[in-house]
Amino acid sequence: MKIEQKELVQTVINRFKQHQFLFEELVKRDFKLKYKRTILGVAWSMLSPLLTLLVMRIVFTQFFGRNMENYTTYLFCGNLVFSYFNESTSQGMSALVGNAGIFTKVNVPKYLFLFSKNVQALINFGLTMIVFFLFCVLDQIMFTWKFIFLLYPVVLLLFFNIGLGLILSALYVFFRDIQYLWSIFTQLLMYLSAIFYTVDMYDPAIQNLFYLNPIYTFIAYLRTVVLSGAIPPVWMHLLLLFYTLLALRIGFWMYKNYNTRFLYYV
Questions:
Q1: Per-residue pLDDT tens digits for 61-102
Q2: Which residue in 219, 251, 10 sits closest to 115, CA to CA?
């Protein structure tokens, strides 16, 4: 099994190098299309999460954060992770169908189209992270060397989104209804990720159930580092790694097994 995984990874890397130029052009195209005919352009990547955060703070402070210290940063941690996850997976879902005109005529790795979507989402996430750190300063959060550990969930979240994107984009080729189901599911997931409330109000057994939600686990990791100034426990590191590897494994399996069938359904 491990040998097959290593061969799969090496194959992906080799094919990526062969089509590096195409990948770069796809990233440029997606980036330009997103901000085409917009007045603020890239600034929307920073303004959109700020406006969302402002609305959530006004609405939920009176209900959940009235007595919570650093509630703005607490809220921002959740919104930051969920927005990145939602943008990456929602846009990645149509990666294959939206580029059918290319891969039905030219033999190229189909996952390149998904990767380009994720690069665009990652750039937006990076810009939002800058704003997040500014909010940490305003909220008088103490910056320590432990902030280096934030790289771990960010990198894993990138690959987790890619894995889910592979799954969703493959399913979208065969079942177009998946876009409506995913929209409903992400809305439900948002409420189950404790973005604007704490899980302390629940029994310990119920609190542990939240970790069955990968997005909540990513959010909890960030909050542990930023708000508690602590390094998350080993089991949380392993749990995030498990979710990421599972998503990638299923995603690449679907692309490998349904690669030729994609051509008949797009």
A1: 656 555 678 888 898 899 899 999 999 999 889 888 877 777
A2: 251
